[in-house]
Design goal:
GO terms for molecular function: phosphorelay response regulator activity; transcription cis-regulatory region binding. This is Transcriptional regulatory protein tctD. With 223 residues, this protein is an alpha/beta fold. The chain folds into two domains: 119 residues, Response regulator (Rossmann fold, 3-Layer(aba) Sandwich), CATH 3.40.50.2300; 95 residues, Winged helix-like DNA-binding domain superfamily/Winged helix DNA-binding domain (Arc Repressor Mutant, subunit A, Orthogonal Bundle). It has eight helices and eleven strands. Helix 6 crosses helix 7. The mean pLDDT is 89.
Length: 223
């Protein structure tokens, strides 16, 4: 899953990015609302983490502008004050949740996962494709009760395919989900990761099929 962090405190942003990447999230980070507004128009994100107080344009103003344009990406506000006024401002502008600084790393990750789960399905606890299982609360893939040892980009690609299970996913969509703006993936990068994922799934009834010229699809293997 891919997140956009908008935070002007460089040290805090660095800490959050490293924390989230360790949790297998793909993360882009920008220090101001203007750049975030431009990027969000060209990239798709699963969650936006938005500081309440930013230089030039506030996080609340950016949130309101995104909502007016019909951008419904889940937004978690980062606020330095837990006052009732701040909370009301966050939700009034269209925020989905908020966390008060300084926050615990576990709380931040748990709130992000809850937002993603809410988007996918209000009641979903897990997704299955044959004997491949995906748990929303841990974002873990398991086969025969054994966790799949996936690297971050392998995880991001399989996660995207699982969330769009049964639907064709283009190579461009997988590229966007697996790489941040700072990365320079090669043209063949997705093919390489798909090859690795097929090895992980070789004993599973879940399979990744290639639809030439269209993309990839995750489905249950025909028996």
């Amino acid at each position: 899953m891919k997140l956009l962090l908008v935070e002007d405190n460089a040290d805090l942003a660095h800490w959050i990015v490293n924390l989230l990447r360790a949790e297998n999230f793909i993360v882009d980070s920008v220090p101001d609302a203007e750049r975030a507004e431009a990027i969000s128009g060209n990239q798709s994100y699963d969650v936006l983490l938005l500081d309440m107080r930013l230089p030039c344009m506030s996080g609340k103003d950016l949130l309101a502008r995104l909502r007016r344009r019909g951008n419904n990406v889940p937004i978690l506000m980062l606020t330095a004050h837990g006052s009732i006024d701040d909370k009301v401002d966050c939700f009034g502008a269209g925020a989905d949740d908020y966390v008060v600084k300084p926050f615990d790393a576990r709380e931040l990750v748990a709130r992000i996962k809850a937002l993603v789960r809410r988007q996918c399905s209000e009641k979903a606890v897990s997704l299955n494709c044959g004997d491949l299982h995906y748990q929303f609360n841990t974002r873990e893939f398991r086969h025969n009760d054994t966790p799949l040892p996936l690297r971050r980009r392998e995880h991001a690609i399989l996660e995207t395919l699982m969330l769009k299970q049964g639907k064709t996913v283009s190579k461009a969509t997988l590229m966007e989900s697996a790489f941040s703006l700072d990365d320079e993936p090669s043209v063949d990068a997705i093919d390489i990761y798909i090859h690795r994922l097929r090895k992980h799934l070789s004993a599973s009834t879940a399979q990744i099929m290639t639809l030439r010229g269209l993309g990839y699809i995750l489905r249950t293997r025909d028996v």
